[in-house]
Design brief:
Elements (H helix, E strand, L loop, with lengths): L1 H4 L3 E3 L2 H8 L20 E5 L4 H6 L9 E4 L6 E4 L5 E5 L5 E11 L4 E6 L21 H21 L9 H23 L12 H10 L4 H9 L7 H22 L4 H33 L1
Antiparallel strand pairs: 1-4, 2-3, 2-5, 5-6, 6-7
């Protein structure tokens, strides 16, 4: 499936198609033995400078890059997709393993390869001992890649830490918090005190005006505690525009495939990370300039 999805082709029945194609110089190989299902093995030749070579390098004998592998398949690679590189061949010329060299780095969360045998099932009869020490490395490397990819994905989705503010911005932040706190206390007490004369409320009012699209109820209540709201029509227009954009985005995404949506999430996760790093850098430059 991996090879076909990337543009390659398969033999649908190795016993028939490969025997017809093969000529002198190739050996016939049994790729499925129902009478000895788990015990059956056949030879493969491993290619140098591949992950498979690294896994089984200590098991090669007399400088022959060969191992015996199990086999349970009647289909096989006929034409290998261009992105892949062969890692092993059986004596009849069939590709027994391949990988994408541009997407294989377990430590970085990359692991794209295909095997025509099962290293995890290559064990001695009635024993958990592997045929070769390298058998366990296949899924160990896969697990390493999964963990690394999960960490990368998680870090890209994390909310960035709040940038450290300089003294002036920190003072403004405290004024805004105090303003909100006072407005909250007045609201809870349902007081009709002359709040609009209190200058400490203006910081919160200015902040809300610059950053928030407010509902009519919120505007009325804030006016009662002295917060002046200007350009209300502009806020309402922005809110409606955002709602229209959200609706259009949802409609578009409902027609996208799972693969397209996954790529979209990865892209915006990357954009989120880049934006966070840029914000941190700019805040740092601002702090340096102020100092």
């Amino acid at each position: 499936m991996l090879n076909v999805s990337c543009g390659g082709k398969l033999y649908q029945d190795i016993e028939k198609e490969l025997l017809q194609k093969n000529h002198d110089g190739f050996q016939r190989v049994v790729h499925m033995d129902y009478g000895n299902y788990d015990g059956h093995r056949h030879l493969i030749n491993v290619m140098a400078n591949t992950p498979l070579h690294d896994w089984f390098n200590d098991s090669f004998v007399d400088d022959k890059m060969e191992i015996m592998v199990n086999s349970y398949h009647h289909q096989g690679v006929k034409i290998l997709a261009e992105r892949f590189v062969p890692m092993a061949f059986s004596p009849d010329g069939l590709i027994e393993g391949f990988y994408d060299p541009n997407n294989y780095n377990p430590e970085d969360g990359k692991f794209i390869m295909g095997l025509q045998f099962h290293p995890e099932r290559m064990r001695n009869h009635d024993s958990d001992e592997f045929d070769y020490p390298g058998c366990s490395k296949a899924y160990q490397e896969f697990v390493t890649a999964v963990i690394a990819y999960e960490k990368k994905l998680s870090s890209s989705m994390l909310v960035p830490k709040s940038p450290k503010l300089n003294e002036e911005l920190e003072q403004k932040r405290k004024l805004i918090l105090r303003s909100f706190s006072m407005a909250r206390d007045i609201y809870k007490s349902d007081s009709h005190m002359v709040a609009n004369r209190n200058p400490e409320l203006e910081a919160g009012a200015d902040f809300l005006q610059a950053n928030t699209a407010l509902s009519l109820q919120q505007e009325n209540r804030l006016k009662q505690v002295g917060a002046t709201i200007r350009n209300g029509a502009s806020y309402s227009h922005k809110m409606k525009l955002n709602q229209m954009r959200e609706k259009a985005a949802r409609n578009m995404m409902s027609n996208m495939s799972v693969e397209q949506l996954t790529d979209l999430v990865s892209f915006y996760g990357l954009m989120h990370q880049i934006c966070s790093e840029t914000i941190d850098r700019k805040m740092h430059e601002l702090v340096v300039e102020e100092s």
